Amino acid sequence: MGDTLRALYQQMGLSPAVIDLGERTGEKLSERFRRIDRRAEYNQMKVLQAMRECRVNAGHFASSTGYGYNDDGRDTLEQVYAKVFGCEDALVRAQLTCGTHALHVALSAILRPGDELLSPVGKPYDTLEEVIGIRESACSLKEFGISYRQVELLPDGSFDCEGIRQAMRPNTRMVTIQRSKGYDSRPTLSVDRIGELIHFIKEIRPDVICMVDNCYGEFVEEREPSQVGADMIVGSLIKNPGGGLAPVGGYIAGRKELIEKCAYRLTSPGLGKEVGASLGLNQTFFQGFFMAPVVTAGALKAAIFAANIFEELGFGVIPDGSVSRHDIIQAVELKSPEALIAFCEGIQAAAPVDSYVSPEPWAMPGYDSDVIMAAGAFVQGSSIELSADGPLRPPYTVFFQGGLTWNHGRFGILMALQRMVDKGLVDV
Ligand SMILES: *Cc1c(COP(=O)(O)O)cnc(C)c1O
To answer: Which residue in 105, 147, 231, 389 is deepest, having the highest Cβ count within 10 Å?
Structure first.
């Protein structure tokens, strides 16, 4: 590292010992990072080629208002998504307000009263509990007469094939598979494993519709679940595929007849994809998707970097420093409330926005303990930007993800460590 950079890091608050640990860890990971760059190169070409094939041009950046009829940019963007994800069609809209909303639209477009939804990979993401009606909520699927069943993963993380076979009922209409572990402790599923699971399910019941919650997984591998048999994949634009630029939005990609139903559910029967003004967001959505493979690669490097640093310092990390990755979330067991708070303070202090504020633990709806969150993001709540949070209860696990650039992710992690060092919570 050059002297000027070292001096700047010190001016920004890093001690020589923390800077050196960062250097050593980075060098140790160089071969692995090279492979991540190669994958990003492949995914970048995949997106570029789709944009070339769809003849994206400046006219597609025009805005529409009102009904949004004949919005060629919006329609072309959806074609680009469909091509990249290997699907027949896609719905990519600002009117899909977040990932949970996109998942709800996809579920309620397909399921009818009397149908059953099956999760063969255990409990879904927290917000889905109210969508499905696992936790009571007005307007849940349960209120509309749709039942739900789940089969846990086996203790070693493998699929409970016998349990899944038994759980498939005549009225099982749809299967939901969450790719990322989210904030759970099970392993994240690789695209290969999702493919095996879908193959197994379709052998029992070829007509069951398999949806994958793809949040945090896009561009981490060279293929998406839609390329190994998923009928629909769903995600949020303020995570990986928005590339950090999309200010809002969600997507659903999959088989044409299913996407048509999703569009009817999102807007209205009879209207479908025809309406939905793009409100000036087309260019940002195209550009964000174009950037997404490289942004995701940076976030992935930051997660691996953190796993290796904190593992070396004796903390439990999930996933560990050496395993292959299938999403961008990293968990670190910090073992004390002081360490969790210090970590989040460091992430916040490293942010480009709101770096001068200090995060505080607070009661949050849906949690039984206080939660601390650090996010100094350009887009509110964006988790492709560097962000961290954790509930204040043992083992004081921080979940963190994102980083629009690898340089920023790396600095954020070192600042988090520095705060812990400054408070005497760890020695480097
Ligand atoms: C983030 C996330 C969601 C929900 O997305 P929101 O945009 O927060 O509503 C659903 N599933 C998984 C696995 C996620 O990571």
So the answer is: 105
**Helix pair 282-312, 16-28: axis angle to 10 deg:** 100
Q: What is the pLDDT of residues 317-355, one digit of tens each?
A: 999 999 999 999 999 999 999 999 999 999 999 999 999
- Residue 411 beta carbon below 6 angstroms from any ligand 1 atom: no
Alpha helices in 313-405 (DSSP H): 337-349
CA pair distance 157, 173, nearest whole angstrom: 25
Find out whether 181 and 174 touch, Cβ atoms under 8 Å. Answer: no
In the numeric block, which tokens belong to residue 14?
Answer: 């890093």
Does 251 sit in the ligand 1 pocket, CB within 6 Å? no
In angstroms, the CA 213 to CA 107 distance is 11
Report how far ligand 1's centroid is from the alpha carbon of 29 (Å).
29
User: pTM above the 0.85 mark?
Assistant: yes
Backbone angles phi, psi at 12, to 5 degrees: -80, -5
Report the residue count for the chain: 428
| 6 exposure class (CB count in 10 Å sphere: 0-12, 13-18, 19+) | middle
- Is there an atom of ligand 1 within 6 Å of 125 CB? yes
